[in-house]
């Protein structure tokens, strides 16, 4: 049976290529091949030797990595919410456009920065405690905080890429207006409650 080779490259006198074989059970085997010339003592070409390596697992890992990166990019491009991808030391790996715009950087410039440089020492200390808790429990953490006069609802998710959990995804939603609306409703209810109580009318 003939095999079709792809990605044929020349490396000195040797040729390398890749091909895919399909086994009887329907599974595909990805092979890397290298053909090197054989010469006699007079320098005449008399044949070639071929070495073959099964790189199926490597190709599978490459595919999973690409899919994982695509998933991150889709999530990070979600509108509205601020989304960070960082390690447990707070070093930023990826952010979405909302985060970059909020801090006045490009997404590329955000990579490698530490969250303490963006949030300040006090908030960074609180954030460090949250990251530590997620690291210890390997479970999602949800909390609210206030920054620069605005209220945020936050979620921290541990990310397992198959080699242990070493990153987290942080989703931060601005809920300032919601908090104001909730406060207005509560104050309105309290106002009418007092009016009814003062009038002696049962509620």
Q: How would you classify the quaternary structure?
A: single chain
Please state roughly what percent of the residues sit in beta strands, choosing from under 5%, 5-15%, 15-25%, 25-35%, 35-45% or over 45%. Answer: 35-45%
Radius of gyration, whole Å: 29 Å
Order of helices and strands: EEEEHEEHHHHEEEH
Ranges with pLDDT <50 over ≥5 residues? none
Class derived from helix and strand content: alpha+beta
The coarse overall form would be: elongated
Topology:
Blueprint: E1 6-11, E2 14-22, E3 28-39, E4 45-54, H1 56-76, E5 82-87, E6 92-95, H2 97-103, H3 107-110, H4 115-119, H5 121-137, E7 141-147, E8 150-160, E9 165-174, H6 176-199
Description:
The protein has 203 residues and is α+β, with helices and mostly antiparallel strands. 38% of the residues lie in helices and 37% in strands. The protein contains 6 helices and 9 strands, in the order ββββαββααααβββα. The strands form 2 sheets. Strands 6-5-9-8-7 form a 5-stranded antiparallel sheet, with helices on both faces. The chain has a 4-stranded antiparallel sheet with strand order 1-2-3-4, covered by helices on one side. Strand 7 (141-147) and strand 8 form a beta hairpin. The longest helix has 24 residues, at 176-199. The model has no long low-confidence stretch (mean pLDDT 80).
Q: What's the short story on this structure?
A:
With 203 residues, the chain is α+β, with helices and mostly antiparallel strands. The chain has helices at 56-76, 97-103, 107-110, 115-119, 121-137, 176-199; strands spanning 6-11, 14-22, 28-39, 45-54, 82-87, 92-95, 141-147, 150-160, 165-174.
